[in-house]
TrEMBL record:
Any Pfam family the entry gives: HTH_3
Keywords linked to the UniProt accession: DNA-binding
Source species, domain of life: Bacteria
Classification via PROSITE patterns: HTH_CROC1
Residue ranges of domain HTH cro/C1-type in the record: 7-61
Stated name of the protein: Helix-turn-helix transcriptional regulator
CDD domains: HTH_XRE
Molecular function as annotated in GO: DNA binding
Amino acid sequence: MIMKNTLARLRRERGLTQEELARRLYITRQAVSRWETGATEPGIDMIKLIARELDVPITELLDMPEHYCQSCGMMFT
C-alpha cells in the first residue's frame, strides 16, 4: 500500500491534526504518525474506518485508480 502521502494530505485538507484523527479513530497519535511516515501500515479494517472518517473512497486512500472495486480490489473491465 502506498497511503502514507495520501493520508497526510487528506488529513491536512480536512484541517485535522494527527491527534484529532487519532482521537476519532480511538488510536494513538503515534500510530497515525507511523502510517504517515510509512513505518507501518494500518490493517484493512482500520483503512475502512480511516476512509469513512475522512469521507473518501478506499480507492483514493490507497492511491488506486478509479476502475477498481472498493470491496475486493479487482479491476473493472
